[in-house]
C-alpha cells in the first residue's frame, strides 16, 4: 500500500515537472539548456498527457484563446494573458471545471497547427475551385435542357381548371372564320370533296387519326323536271311553290323547284279528288271517313303535331293514294317568311333503304325498294294551298293568321305528278379519334353533319361543322400541353343526313357489335342555331341533371336560358340510331325561335330553302354559336373525364313514373313495377354511386363495374318495334306538350279508330316488360357489387 502511494506521488511530481517545463518554454521560447534527448522525452510525455485529456467526452470543442494563437517561439510579450488556458494546472483540474460547469466546454475548439496565411490561401483555393465547377455545371445543364426538353407533365383529366382552360379557347370569331371558310368551298353534286376538306381541317388541328368512311347507298333525288300539281277544273298547272308552270329552261331547272319534293315517295301520276284532313290525327280521319270514301284520293295535310311518317302511315292505312303536305302560316314563327316557299321532306326512317338493318358494304344483298310508301307525296307552299282551297290572295288576308280549311261545298280534283329518281351514290363520313388515356375502349361521340341539298335546310350543316371544329381546336390545344381525356372522343361529320340520316345509320350498322359495347354517350350538334329566341336543351333522362348544371356555367345571356328546363323529347338528326337502336344516352343544345302554337311540333321535319346569309342574320356576332360550343364542350368533358360516369339512375325512374300519370288503362300494374324500379334505383344511387364518387373508395375494379352498369341504363327501354316516326326508346316523349309514353298514346288513339283493345294491351305489355327489365337490370347490378364485396372480405 505504501509503495503504491509512493509511486503515485512520484508520477505526480513528474507530471508537474513536465508542465513546468512546458510553461517555461511558452514564456521564453527554445531553451539552450535542454539537450535534444530530454526535449524529445518531454515532448512525448506531453503528447501522451494531452491525448489522455482529449479522450474525455466533449473535449473536441476545446480551443485556445486568441492570445495563444501565435507561434510560441515568436512570442516576446511578458504580460501574455494565459489565464483562460491554465497551463500550470493539471488536466484533472480542467475536467473538474467541466464537471462543475458543463457549458465551459462550448467555449473551446481544437486549434489547427497552421498559420493564418496558409489557411487563407487554402480556403481561397477551395472556393475558386467550387465556383468554377458550379459555373461549369450551370452551363452544361442549360444547354442540355435546351437540346432535350423535358416531356410535358401529365395533367389530371378530371380537373375544373382544365375545363376552364379548354372552354376559354372557344371563341366566336374562330367559329365565324371556320363557318365562312366552309361556305366559300366549292361543292359538287355530292359531298365527297367537302368531306375531304373537313378531314384536312381536323388533321391540321393535330388530330392524327381521321378517317374517311364511304358507303354506296340508294338515294332518291330530284328528277330532270319539277313535280307539278294541276287543277282539272281550270287546267292550271302549278309548281310546288305555287308558281305557274313555265316552259322557260331556267325555270324548269331551278333548284328551288327541283328540290321541293318528298324523298322516297312513290312515283307517277295520280288524278283524284282532294280531301282536307287537317293535321291527320285520329279524330280528323274519323271525321273525314264519316262523310266520304277516301280510297285512292289525295289528302291535303298540314305538317305538325305528330311525326310525318306516323301520319302518312295512317293515311296509307285508310286507303289514300296521294298526299299534299304544307305548313300552316299560323304554326310558323312570326319571324319566318315561308308562306310562298315549298320545302323538302324525307320519308326514310333511317339508313340505306336497299339494306335495311345491315350495312351497305361490298357484297351486301340489295333489296329493290325504289319507294318506301305507296303514297304519292308532294310538299307544297302555303301559297299553293290557299289557291287549292280558293282563299282570296289579297295582302291583308295573307298577312293575317287564318287557319286554312277546304270548303265543304264543291269538290276539287287535281292531278299530281311525281318524277324523282332513285340511284346509287357514294356518301362519305368523316370520323376522327382522340384516344382516351384510361378507358380507350369507351367512346363519347360528338356528331355533326355536312350533308345538305342545294341550300335546303339552310346552312345548318356549316354551323354544325364549324362548332365541332372549334371544339376540337380547343381540345387539341390542351392535348399539346400533355392533357388527354380518360375516354376516347369520336368526332363525326355525317353524310346523307337530309335524306334520312343515311351516313350515321350505315356506319353504326357496320360497327354495331363494337358500338353496343363501347359507346358511352352521343352529343348532337345537328343544327346549333335555327333561331335566336330561346335556348333549347334536350337530354335523355340519365343526362338531364348534367345538362342543367352545364347551363349554369356557360349561359352567356341569362335571360335567354331561364329555368334551365331540360326535356327528353324526340329530336331530328343523326342521334336517331344511337338513341333508338343502341340505347345510348344523348344530349343536344340549340337555339330556336319560340313556337308559334301548340301545333308547331315536328315542323323541323320540313327543310326550306334558306338564303346563305340567314345564319349570320340570326347570330351576327356568333355569340350564340359560342354558347352552344361551350355547353357542348362542358358536357363532353364531364362525360369523357369523370372517373364515374355522370349518369343519374334515379332520374330515369322518376321519368318513368311521370310518364304514367294520366293513363287510364293498366295503371295499377304499371305503377307497381315503376315503384319497384324507383326503389331499386334509389338503393343503387345511395349504395353504389355515392361511395364510388368518394376518391378514397374509388377502387379501379369497382369503378369499372359501376360504369358498365351505368352505360347500359337506357338499353332496357328499347321496344322491339314502334309505330313509324315514333322512337323505339320509350323514355323520349313526342314533344313538350305530352308527358305520357308516346307508344301508349298512339295505342289509345288507334283504339278510337279501329274499336279494338288489342293494340292497347300489346303496348301496355311492351311498356310493362321494359320497366320490369330495367328494374331487374338495376337489381342485378346491386347483386354483382354485393357478391364482389363479399368475396373481397
Automatic annotation (TrEMBL):
**Sorted alphabetically, which keywords does the UniProt record give?**
Membrane, Transmembrane, Transmembrane helix
Keyword check for Cell inner membrane: no
Q: Which SUPFAM superfamilies match?
A: PA domain (SSF52025), Transferrin receptor-like dimerisation domain (SSF47672), Zn-dependent exopeptidases (SSF53187)
What are the transmembrane regions? 123-144
Q: Does the keyword Membrane apply?
A: yes
InterPro entries attached to this UniProt entry: PA_dom_sf, Peptidase_M28, Peptidase_M28B, TFR-like_dimer_dom_sf
Q: Give positions of region: Disordered.
A: 72-96
Q: Which domain of life is it from?
A: Eukaryota
Domain Peptidase M28 residues, every copy: 429-592
Q: Which Gene3D superfamilies match?
A: 3.50.30.30, Transferrin receptor-like, dimerisation domain (1.20.930.40), Zn peptidases (3.40.630.10)
A Pfam family hit: Peptidase_M28
What family is this protein classified in?
Belongs to the peptidase M28 family. M28B subfamily.
User: What is this protein's name?
Assistant: N-acetylated alpha-linked acidic dipeptidase like 2
Q: What is the lineage of its organism?
A: Eukaryota, Metazoa, Chordata, Craniata, Vertebrata
The gene that this protein is the product of is: NAALADL2
Amino acid at each position: 500500500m505504501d509503495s503504491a502511494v509512493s509511486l503515485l506521488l512520484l508520477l505526480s511530481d513528474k507530471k508537474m515537472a513536465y508542465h513546468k517545463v512546458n510553461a517555461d518554454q511558452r514564456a521564453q521560447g527554445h531553451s539552450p539548456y535542454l539537450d535534444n534527448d530530454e526535449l524529445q522525452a518531454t515532448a512525448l510525455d506531453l503528447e501522451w498527457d494531452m491525448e489522455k485529456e482529449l479522450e474525455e467526452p466533449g473535449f473536441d470543442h476545446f480551443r485556445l484563446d486568441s492570445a495563444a494563437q501565435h507561434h510560441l517561439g515568436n512570442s516576446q510579450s511578458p504580460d501574455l494573458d494565459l489565464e483562460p488556458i491554465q497551463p500550470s494546472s493539471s488536466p484533472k483540474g480542467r475536467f473538474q471545471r467541466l464537471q462543475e460547469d458543463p457549458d465551459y466546454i462550448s467555449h473551446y475548439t481544437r486549434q489547427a497547427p497552421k498559420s493564418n496565411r496558409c489557411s487563407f490561401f487554402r480556403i481561397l483555393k477551395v472556393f475558386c475551385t467550387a465556383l468554377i465547377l458550379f459555373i461549369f455545371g450551370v452551363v452544361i445543364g442549360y444547354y442540355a435542357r435546351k437540346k432535350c426538353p423535358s416531356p410535358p407533365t401529365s395533367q389530371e383529366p378530371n380537373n375544373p381548371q382544365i375545363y376552364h382552360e379548354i372552354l376559354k379557347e372557344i371563341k366566336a370569331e374562330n367559329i365565324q372564320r371556320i363557318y365562312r371558310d366552309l361556305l366559300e368551298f366549292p361543292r359538287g353534286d355530292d359531298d365527297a370533296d367537302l368531306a375531304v376538306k373537313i378531314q384536312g381541317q381536323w388533321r391540321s388541328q393535330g388530330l392524327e387519326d381521321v378517317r374517311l368512311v364511304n358507303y354506296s347507298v340508294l338515294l332518291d333525288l330530284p328528277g330532270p323536271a319539277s313535280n307539278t300539281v294541276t287543277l282539272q277544273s281550270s287546267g292550271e298547272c302549278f309548281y310546288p311553290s305555287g308558281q305557274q308552270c313555265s316552259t322557260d329552261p331556267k325555270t324548269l331547272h331551278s333548284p328551288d323547284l327541283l328540290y321541293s319534293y318528298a324523298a322516297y315517295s312513290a312515283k307517277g301520276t295520280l288524278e283524284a279528288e282532294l280531301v282536307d284532313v287537317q293535321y291527320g290525327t285520329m279524330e280528323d280521319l274519323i271525321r273525314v271517313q264519316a262523310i266520304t270514301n277516301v280510297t285512292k284520293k289525295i289528302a291535303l295535310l298540314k305538317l305538325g303535331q305528330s311525326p310525318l311518317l306516323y301520319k302518312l302511315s295512317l293515311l296509307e292505312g285508310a286507303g289514300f293514294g296521294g298526299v299534299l303536305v304544307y305548313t300552316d302560316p299560323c304554326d310558323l314563327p312570326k319571324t319566318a317568311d315561308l308562306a310562298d316557299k315549298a320545302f323538302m321532306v324525307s320519308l326514310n326512317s333511317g339508313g340505306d333503304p336497299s339494306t335495311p338493318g345491315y350495312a351497305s358494304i361490298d357484297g351486301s344483298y340489295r333489296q329493290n325498294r325504289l319507294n318506301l310508301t305507296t303514297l304519292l307525296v308532294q310538299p307544297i307552299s302555303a301559297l299553293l294551298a290557299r289557291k287549292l282551297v280558293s282563299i282570296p290572295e289579297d295582302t291583308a288576308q295573307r298577312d293575317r293568321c287564318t287557319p286554312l280549311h277546304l270548303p265543304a261545298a264543291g269538290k276539287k280534283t287535281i292531278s299530281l305528278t311525281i318524277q324523282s329518281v332513285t340511284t346509287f351514290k357514294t356518301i362519305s363520313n368523316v370520323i376522327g379519334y382522340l384516344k382516351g388515356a384510361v378507358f380507350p375502349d369507351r367512346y363519347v361521340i360528338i356528331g355533326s353533319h355536312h350533308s345538305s341539298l342545294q341550300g335546303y335546310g339552310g346552312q345548318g350543316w356549316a354551323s354544325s361543322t364549324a362548332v365541332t371544329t372549334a371544339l376540337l381546336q380547343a381540345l387539341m390545344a390542351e392535348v399539346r400541353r400533355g392533357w388527354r381525356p380518360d375516354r376516347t372522343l369520336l368526332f363525326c361529320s355525317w353524310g346523307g343526313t337530309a335524306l334520312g340520316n343515311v351516313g350515321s345509320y350505315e356506319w353504326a350498322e357496320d360497327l354495331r357489335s363494337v358500338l353496343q359495347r363501347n359507346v358511352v354517350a352521343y352529343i348532337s350538334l345537328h343544327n346549333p342555331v335555327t333561331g335566336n329566341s330561346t335556348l333549347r336543351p334536350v337530354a335523355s333522362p340519365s343526362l338531364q341533371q348534367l345538362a342543367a348544371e352545364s347551363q349554369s356555367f356557360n349561359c352567356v345571356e341569362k335571360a335567354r336560358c331561364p329555368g334551365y328546363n331540360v326535356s327528353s323529347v324526340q329530336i331530328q338528326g343523326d342521334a336517331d340510331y344511337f338513341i333508338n337502336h343502341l340505347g345510348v344516352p344523348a344530349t343536344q343544345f340549340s337555339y330556336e325561335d319560340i313556337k308559334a302554337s301548340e301545333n308547331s311540333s315536328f315542323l323541323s321535319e320540313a327543310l326550306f330553302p334558306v338564303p346563305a346569309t340567314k345564319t349570320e342574320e340570326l347570330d351576327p356576332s356568333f355569340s350564340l354559336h359560342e354558347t352552344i360550343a361551350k355547353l357542348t364542350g362542358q358536357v363532353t368533358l364531364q362525360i369523357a373525364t369523370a372517373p364515374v360516369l355522370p349518369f343519374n339512375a334515379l332520374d330515369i325512374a322518376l321519368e318513368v313514373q311521370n310518364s304514367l300519370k294520366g293513363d287510364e288503362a293498366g295503371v295499377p300494374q304499371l305503377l307497381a313495377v315503376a315503384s319497384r324500379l324507383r326503389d331499386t334505383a334509389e338503393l343503387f344511387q345511395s349504395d353504389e354511386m355515392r361511395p364510388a364518387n368518394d376518391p378514397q373508395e374509388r377502387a379501379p375494379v369497382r369503378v369499372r363495374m359501376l360504369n358498365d352498369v351505368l352505360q347500359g341504363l337506357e338499353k332496357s327501354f328499347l321496344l322491339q318495334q314502334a309505330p313509324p316516326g315514333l322512337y323505339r326508346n320509350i323514355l323520349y316523349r313526342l314533344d313538350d306538350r305530352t308527358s305520357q309514353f308516346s307508344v301508349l298514346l298512339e295505342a289509345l288513339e288507334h283504339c278510337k279508330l279501329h274499336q279494338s283493345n288489342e293494340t292497347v294491351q300489346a303496348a301496355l305489355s311492351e311498356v310493362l316488360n321494359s320497366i320490369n327489365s330495367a328494374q331487374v337490370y338495376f337489381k342485378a347490378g346491386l347483386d354483382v357489387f354485393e357478391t364482389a364485396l363479399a368475396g373481397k372480405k
